[in-house]
Amino acid sequence: MSQFVAALRARVQDAQQALEAAREAGHPYEAGLHSGRLADLLELARHHGIDTAGWVDPEILAVLSEENR
Hints:
Layout: H1 3-25, H2 28-47, H3 58-67
Helix pairs in contact: 1-2
């Protein structure tokens, strides 16, 4: 795994954890910010042809898909 992929995966995991924490704490604005960041990171990975399967909880991916419609 290249350094770029490793760093990107770590940032995706950090954003996902922050999103989950914000939701659990009942902070919708903060959750929205983390959700947007996560979507941006996944788009960056897609742009570079990086397979992110298994990086993000499927439930979060479903919510991201709904938010981006």
